[in-house]
Design goal:
This protein is α+β, with helices and mostly antiparallel strands. The protein has helices spanning 33-39, 47-62, 94-98, 113-121, 192-205, 213-216, 227-235, and strands spanning 71-78, 84-85, 88-89, 104-107, 127-132, 139-152, 176-191, 222-226. A hairpin with a 6-residue loop joins strand 5 and strand 6 (139-152). Helix 2 packs across helix 5.
Amino acid sequence: MPWPSRKRDKGAVADKKEPDAKVAKTEEETPDKEEEEKSAKPPPGSSKSGWKNWKKTKESDSGGEESKITYRHWLLKSEPESRLEKGVDVKFSIDDLKAQPNQTTFWDGVRNYQARNFLRAMKLGQQAFFYHSNCKEPGIVAIVKIVKEAYPDHTQFDQKDPHYDSSSRKENPKWSMVDVQFVRMTKRFIPLSEIKAHHLAHKADGGPLKNMMLFTRQRLSIQPLTQEEFDFVLSLEEEKPH
């Protein structure tokens, strides 16, 4: 029996001041706690030195060649805390994923065209960061992989679902989803504040996180990562938190 529709357009959480927000409102139109996160001050610490050390290691591994900007990795936002949307709790934490049969579930409820297109670009076996969003302390908690490529999202046809779309037709569905499977927890929780500190430093010195979509398009619930972005963020799990 499939899990109730829990993974929503996580970046598109309606502002709590707008309880009557439309179901299919886009992420660009609906602010959420991510907007507050954007203005949070990064923690103290020498992010530049971390980037330079990482760069030196990567150059020795790759002969100093810069990676081409292609997307083979992803960041998926999900809400670990209960929140009702049209009477349905949209909470879905990493523990909820781990509790699923074969630790696998469908990633439904995305109602933003750019996020949907990213879903459709995902390939079998590609990995993604599982990101807890719209919560007290957002950040990366785990790694998942794509185990089924894009197919029609059934929730768009379910009138009882908060993300029902009356304009979508079964012969030409608007919205897609993929199946994801738990791979492993990250060695430690990697908070948004720490990633942001590196992003700000990299904007100044040309590091790999300078254009990370988590900060340039922060409301998108599905985000692509370049190889360099993924590798650098993954390297943070080996460091002691600031």
